[in-house]
Specification:
The protein has about 950 residues and is of the alpha+beta class. Among the domains are: about 210 residues, no CATH class; about 210 residues, Isoleucyl-tRNA Synthetase, domain 2 (Alpha-Beta Complex), CATH 3.90.740; about 150 residues, Isoleucyl-tRNA Synthetase, Domain 1, CATH 1.10.730.10; about 60 residues, Ubiquitin-like (UB roll). The protein is about 35% helix and about 15% strand. The chain contains 31 helices and 31 strands. Helix 25 packs parallel to helix 27.
Length: about 950
């Protein structure tokens, strides 16, 4: 009989067998039921929590996935890994008595939809909404228990109204260093008006013009526009944040060259929060690797600010090794440093070394040429340890403030404006990069830290710099200060005090973190709620004018340029709609209707994901960002969570220093201004691993369809040609993507859920193997057979009591599964369910109803559709979703007896079956009285007995 005929005969003989067809029917019915009944809707407190005694008595759990971006390509089986995991965990929490908020929205602004619009002319909203609908359909098929009332997309105007509102809160705030918090900008203005805070310079606030006041306030605002060095990508026609530039100086999207340019852009003053962003990491339950990445990105370092006089000005440097100041023999400025233009003389000073000039006739020519060269490199490239050090002399000398010596001032690309002050004092004897630069440019070196080896104190004979924090300072004595003989720590303290006393420096703290570039030259993003008057002063729109919606434009693309042409500047799509840009508005400031021009940049795609956890709480509130009582209930501080936040946040580790850092910053500003009670957005973070797949490539290196590759004798062939195989990412372009729809159609969504959870620990990457999916399908079939007769569809369970072996298997499973689900060890939870199910299958006969019901409840978080179906077949009228999760009976959850090994002189002499609760004293008596032990001792004296109840006794003889 053929395989097809065998399958058909089997279907006739067992019409009620659990098959893919039956699974599809069950799953569709229960998904419809859950939607109709609002099964997953989590209630909010109404007003004062005291008025909701049921909620007060019930613990809450807010569980979130990282915002998905709806791709037009749809999902492959790797995408839902985290969504299934949070769904399992959320279901378990509901069954253990929690009010669970679990939902999913869509991060829908961004470059992919805009690029599609550029290529096709189709509005990005159309393609984005189509992608959202497709993704919703795919996720629904997985049976995810989301509260759909709370879902939204960042492109919804009633959502980005509040994104714009938050921007205005940040724009209208400043950071008070004394209070260590953000305050309304109006309070700063009041301080200037009253004279409580002095206006920089010699004039009073009332003497300043409107433009001067705006410029002054811009120095304080947490959101501000400035002319600053930015990452300009001509190939994309937009500027990029540092985090969007790859290590080799190219755009993360499109792989275009990125250049340094000076443009007027919006920034967020995230640096004001650097200390708090660092300190509050300690209160978060995050992976240490993510905390370390954030600490390194923020990059706090303690040192000193030092002023080097030059031509009536001063070059200020930040250094962490102020103890080596006597060893500074030259200075280096970033090519973009604003003082460079002031210093460059008309001609080279007498005695200038040829190697310093770069072959140019004048300092101005040399500086201009080198600046052009540096602009073609990214910050990452400039900081890399290049073999050849480049730079050029500015033609200017500064004065070392401790020694009085003249030191030449260079520009070099290894110094960045984005770190410290954009200037360094170079101590070549004790810094590897400075040493290499000094060798290349024949600059002097002075040893000021005594080497601990035998190299001596003449750096000209060294092969590299000597750097140490555990050495004595030498050659460091001036007219009124000496550091000689001091250790590094004491020398730092002495020189810092001296600098402060002289008024030429002070101890200070510096950060690697830079302010967040917040402008994009794109169409598909949130418009800034800012307009400019005829003087170029920025004015915020009143709240009544929000949301400011995107206008229609004929061309969605920013103007792009030759990717290699750095001498270009942005032209935005919004700037082409003059009717939208030029407006007459009454801003409610008492000046009546006036003419303004709108901001034509848009916010970056990160903006909408900086606060979305708050919108989940109160998604239909059109009067407030979020109701305070609701925010306090779901996210407020509580025992073990001193800064508040989401109870569990699951997503990829790739967002460590982008989304996570930005969201923390926005939360802290909103917290300072009193809008929310949670100073941190996410209390517990869990990074899931990745589902990988094999990529097969032909002799040309081109990926071939993985599904059509054949394995023969350990090799792989596509259409008869041998191909290579390598484990990597899954994706459409790699031709190895498997969609969840395919697996659900062949086996059912519950099988897919189980397989993804059973593949291994959630935080570890694992390879996809379609052939292995059937193992979880068979588990569900055996589970079905233990409850339902495949021939008649009738229940097979019995009302009799379970035997002791079954009770022990059941309660051990309950105890283990409960602990595993709580710890998000889903793979081992499935293994324990499988073990219990196999026990029932092997035992034969009808399964006791009590055991069958417990088994269904155990698997309900993992495979909710089949659990719901079996729960109803077992006679229950209420959903399995809100049933109590089984609790183990301790009397049955532990082993009835354990094996204790008895060793004499390290060799096993007996094995004893003892109670798991036996004491050390009792176990020693039992072991010494055992016949085999007595015989093995043969009267030898006992020097020591080591007992580790209940599993080990080690006897040491005399």
């Amino acid at each position: 009989m053929s395989e097809t005929n065998t399958a058909a005969a089997s279907e006739v003989a067992a019409p009620h067998r659990y098959t893919a067809v039956m699974a599809a029917d069950i799953e569709a019915r229960w998904q419809d039921f859950w939607d109709a009944e609002g099964t997953y809707e989590a209630p909010n407190p109404s007003g004062d929590l005291a008025g909701d005694p049921a909620l007060v008595a019930k613990p809450k759990k807010f569980i979130m996935d990282m915002f998905p971006y709806p791709s037009g390509a749809g999902l492959h089986v790797g995408h839902p890994l985290g969504y299934i995991a949070t769904d399992v965990f959320a279901r378990f929490q509901r069954m253990t008595g929690h009010n669970v908020l679990h939902t999913l929205g869509f991060d829908a602004f961004g470059l992919p939809a805009e690029q599609h619009a550029v290529q096709t002319g189709e509005h990005p909203r159309i393609t984005t909404e189509a992608a959202i609908n497709n993704m919703k359909s795919q996720l629904r098929r997985l049976g995810l228990g989301h509260d759909k009332r709370r879902s939204f997309a960042t492109i919804d105007p009633d959502y980005y109204k509040w994104t714009q509102w938050i921007f205005l809160q940040i724009f209208n705030s400043w950071y008070d260093d004394e209070a260590q918090k953000a305050r309304p900008i109006a309070e700063l203005v009041a301080q200037f008006e009253s004279g409580e805070r002095a206006v920089p310079g010699t004039r009073a606030w009332h003497e300043l013009s409107t433009v001067e006041r705006a410029d002054l306030l811009s120095e304080y605002r947490l959101a501000y526009a400035s002319d600053a060095p930015v990452n300009w990508c001509p190939g994309l026609g937009t500027v990029l944040a540092n985090e969007e530039v790859t290590a080799d100086g190219r755009s993360e999207r499109g792989n275009y060259p990125v250049f340094k340019a000076k443009l007027r852009q919006w920034n967020m003053r995230i640096t004001a929060y650097a200390d708090r962003l660092l300190d509050d990491l300690d209160a978060l339950d995050w992976p240490e690797a993510i905390k370390l990445q954030q600490r390194n990105w923020i990059g706090r370092s303690e040192g000193a600010r030092v002023d080097f006089p030059v031509d009536g000005e001063a070059i200020t440097v930040f250094t962490t090794r102020q103890d080596t100041l006597f060893g500074a023999t030259y200075m280096v400025l970033a090519p973009e440093h604003p003082l460079v233009d002031k210093f460059v003389p008309a001609a080279w000073p007498e005695g200038t070394h040829d190697v310093w000039t770069g072959g140019h006739a004048t300092p101005a020519e040399a500086v201009a040429a080198y600046r052009a060269q540096a602009a073609s490199k990214s910050d990452v490239e400039r900081q890399a340890e290049a073999k050849d050090k480049t730079g050029v002399f500015t033609g200017t000398y500064a004065v070392n403030p401790v020694s009085g010596e003249r030191v030449p001032v260079f520009i070099a690309d290894y110094v960045l404006m984005g770190y410290g002050t954009g200037a360094i004092m170079a101590v070549p004897a004790h810094d590897t990069r400075d040493f290499a630069f000094a060798r290349a440019f024949e600059l002097p070196m002075r040893c000021v830290v005594e080497p601990s080896d035998d190299r001596g104190t003449d750096p000209s004979t060294w092969d590299d710099a000597f750097a140490s924090y555990d050495a004595k300072i030498v050659n460091s004595a001036g007219d009124d200060i000496t550091l000689d003989g001091l250790g590094v720590v004491d020398a730092k303290a002495r020189i810092t005090e001296w600098l402060a006393r002289k008024g030429i420096g002070e101890g200070t703290v510096n950060f690697r973190l830079r302010d967040w570039l917040f402008s994009r030259q794109r169409y598909w993003g949130e418009p800034f709620p800012i307009v400019y008057d005829e003087d170029g002063v920025a004015h915020p729109l009143p709240e009544s004018m929000l949301p400011l919606e995107l206008p229609e434009v004929e061309d969605y693309s920013p103007r792009t340029f030759d990717p290699d042409d750095a001498n270009t500047s942005p032209e935005t799509p919004l700037s082409r709609n003059e009717d939208w840009v030029a407006v007459t508005l009454d801003l409610g400031d008492g000046r009546g209707p006036r003419k303004y021009r709108r901001e034509t940049n848009t916010m970056p795609n990160w903006a909408g994901s900086c606060w979305y956890e708050l919108r989940y709480l109160d998604p239909h509130n059109d009067q407030k960002l979020v109701d305070p009582a609701i925010e306090q209930y779901w996210m407020g501080p509580r025992e073990g969570q001193p800064t508040g936040g989401v109870d569990l946040y699951v997503g990829g580790a790739e967002h460590a220093v982008l989304h996570l850092l930005y969201a923390r910053f926005w939360s802290k500003v909103l917290f300072d201004l009193g809008h929310i009670s949670s100073a941190e957005p996410f209390h517990k973070l869990f990074n899931q691993g990745m589902i990988q797949a094999y990529v097969y490539r032909d002799s040309r290196g081109i990926a071939v369809p993985a599904a059509e590759v054949e394995e023969r004798d350990g090799a792989y062939y596509y259409q008869g040609e041998k191909v290579s195989r390598l484990l990597g990412k899954m994706g459409k372009s790699l031709k190895n993507a498997v969609t969840p729809d395919e697996i659900a159609a062949e086996y059912g969504a519950d099988t897919l859920r189980l397989y993804e959870m059973a593949m291994g620990p959630l935080d570890v990457s694992r390879p996809w193997d379609t052939r292995a999916v059937v193992g979880q399908f068979r588990l569900l079939q055996r589970l079905w057979r233990n409850v339902v007769d495949e021939a008649t569809g009738a229940l097979t369970v019995t009302g009799s009591e379970a035997d002791e072996d079954t009770l022990r298997a059941l309660h051990k499973a309950i105890d283990g599964v409960r602990q595993d689900l709580e710890g998000m060890r889903f793979n081992t939870a499935i293994a324990k369910v499988t073990e219990l199910n196999n026990h029932l299958t092997k035992a034969g006969g009808a399964v006791p109803r009590s055991v069958a019901e417990s088994l269904v409840l155990l698997i309900a978080p993992l495979a909710p559709h089949i659990a719901e179906e079996l729960w109803r077949k077992l006679g229950h009228s209420s959903s399995v979703v809100h049933q109590d999760f089984p609790v183990a009976d301790p009397a049955y959850a532990v082993d009835e007896a354990v094996t204790c090994v008895v060793q004499i002189k390290g060799k096993v002499k007996a094995r004893l079956e003892v109670s798991p609760s036996i004491s050390d004293e009792e176990l020693e008596k039992v072991a010494l009285g055992d016949e085999k032990v007595v015989a093995a001792l043969a009267g030898a004296g006992i020097r020591k007995v080591i007992v580790r109840a209940p599993k080990l006794v080690n006897i040491v003889t005399a």
